[in-house]
Amino acid sequence: MKAAITTTPIGGSPFQSRRRPLVIKKFGGTSVANIERIRRIARLALEAQRAGNDVVVVVSAMGGETDRLLKLAYQLLPVPDSREMDVLAATGEQVTVALTALAIQAEGGKAASFLGHQLPVITDSSFTRARIQCVEQGPIREALAGGQIAVVAGFQGVDPKNNITTLGRGGSDTTAVAVAATLGADICEIYTDVEGVFTADPRVCPSGLKLKSIPYEEMLELASLGAKVLQVRSVEIAMKYDVPIHVRSSFTEEEGTRIVSRDKMLESRRLMGLACERNQVRVELIGAECRPGLVAELTDFMAELNVSVDMLCHSRGALENPRADISFTLPEGELRRAQPELEHFMGRLGASSMQVSSDLAKVSLVGIGLRSDPGIAARLCRSLTEQGIHVSGLSVNELRISCLVEGDAADQAVCILHETFELAGETRVEPLASLSPA
Amino acid sequence: MKAAITTTPIGGSPFQSRRRPLVIKKFGGTSVANIERIRRIARLALEAQRAGNDVVVVVSAMGGETDRLLKLAYQLLPVPDSREMDVLAATGEQVTVALTALAIQAEGGKAASFLGHQLPVITDSSFTRARIQCVEQGPIREALAGGQIAVVAGFQGVDPKNNITTLGRGGSDTTAVAVAATLGADICEIYTDVEGVFTADPRVCPSGLKLKSIPYEEMLELASLGAKVLQVRSVEIAMKYDVPIHVRSSFTEEEGTRIVSRDKMLESRRLMGLACERNQVRVELIGAECRPGLVAELTDFMAELNVSVDMLCHSRGALENPRADISFTLPEGELRRAQPELEHFMGRLGASSMQVSSDLAKVSLVGIGLRSDPGIAARLCRSLTEQGIHVSGLSVNELRISCLVEGDAADQAVCILHETFELAGETRVEPLASLSPA
Question: What's the whole-number mean pLDDT along residues A349-364?
């Protein structure tokens, strides 16, 4: 039954009846870390093709390769030019596509590799974190029509002036989903070194449960909260174009987790899981001038530095002494980058001092209807407090509730909340058949 | 005086007076083998720029990198698809251009890298040994006009369908010369791990002398005879477009060897030097049918296999038994590749057997007027024979005389001939000024 999902034709709309189903398979760095593993993914791709699918493989650089290359550059400059960094980094995937195409040929199949500039994958010009604007499908269609497996370099593209660009960490996920969206693929399979999306990281919370499926929206929340299964941007594109994603292990044949639109969910769950972002800091600007638009001034300023702040809190002093305190959280790395400008900005706000509390963690519960049921936030705070964990911040929206705790209490908090909200249970499995597009 | 050649403006025609002189600097694998060496070439490039030149740097892959990559492919397939091999191999130079551009920036300069497909360098579609058809100069001109040093990836190009191609071993030389020809550069400096072109390999013959200059034609002969200083194709292009080349060491500031048109020679020499090709084999096809066009049949057939034969000898039997024997030499590696087809072909010629003599060497004297003076060939044979070296083949043309000897006598033969023809002497140095374009 499992095998049927990946290797038998998917789909079945009368309009598609004469077209072969199309499967995109994306393999990350650990799945292509050496020649043996590349052989293995070649066989996976060929199996899928022999079962009647058209197959596109998207690959990342061999594990550790991108870091090795970037380290060379950092030996030259502390802040290397980002255009050249992308030229450098893009070689990682170029090596893997060639080897993967060769591996498929070695197994008796037909394959051709495609680099970002060969399709092309057009992006904007934000080197090292470019965003895909469009993917040209002609070359892939032609390869598929010729019975080839198309092997596409993840992570890379070209801007309109033909400069090499890369998409940032996890960018190959985004390439895979963008290719899937462009070609109208039946499924985009993301092979990774975890087995799927869990209610909580099983290394932290042993009762963490693999989800059979999760809606795009909740996955977006989890991804942006540090569940490093998928690049956030890839989920955004999948949601926009309704591309079904299957996150699964490279090392087993097990079903992983399907990321789908809400109406295609396999199980009905309200709470999806817990995410944990470590290395958070809270910054407090104390005694700023109490003027209108203070918060907007701050967020504008931080946006210019390309820093996202969260859990912002603005408190006014007493009437007789109208000074404002503003606090917010951000990742420690971002603060290091922004601190000099921030201290300068503090002066513009007239703030008297800046306090930084570091080594905090943001633990988040992701689900639906979390704001409309205030009982959930209350239960969350109570259960942590009862176990002696201090909650120093809370933010609530419809799809998630986040609380700020001390870094060394983060794991415990995840486990407490996993139990409190019975995340290992609360799942009703529906027949897999409900997955096939109606 | 030395420094003046590389770093002060070259040229001086009144038509060029408002243009900055243009220097192309090509660095091979050993010159970019690690970050320290890359820093060094960055400084060399900047020195030349600060002295008033426009500078284009052409780089190879880091030493050993191409072999490392190709070895990965050979783990997958004994004869990997050549299109994918080029995708793989081209990453080597891509890494180096990025690092070199960064190194120039780290030294305070401005630089931008250009890959084969970005200029583009258009080649034919003969993967792994493509020939450059043209180089687009726009992007380099634009970079130079902006005060940047243009860093161009050697060895790689794209065919008209945008497939990645590579130019074969030593292809970066050809890239450098093609770029120099396209841009009308004043000089193309080839930095290498030898100090220049020698009358004989100094490791074999300690009295081997570095030539101050050598005409294109003689350099072509030397290069094609295994003096691995430059790719043959690069010399062909330089000759066609009259690009002055300066072959010099990456590790010293010494003048190397100028490769120039005959009228710009620094010294007047008739004999340029000795080259030695090892690992030659002689194949004899015995008792073939004695029919017209036999030799053409053979050479056509070998050309189809892309094998160059040399020292071909066709002997007819007696009138009453008109069978033909044909012998020829070729590199051992080529024979290994061609042997199965050759044995099959032997049947078509009706030959009764094929004999292979291996471990031979071809020692060649390169100079001018060698055919018109039969005394030279005679002196060559006599001097070798007197020292007990058997000459089993001889071919003579205007620019070279080659003789076939046993492999283990090759070094001795080189030394004998170096002395016989007094190659360490016979040089009259003219002032360097004669080099500058009139």
Answer: 90
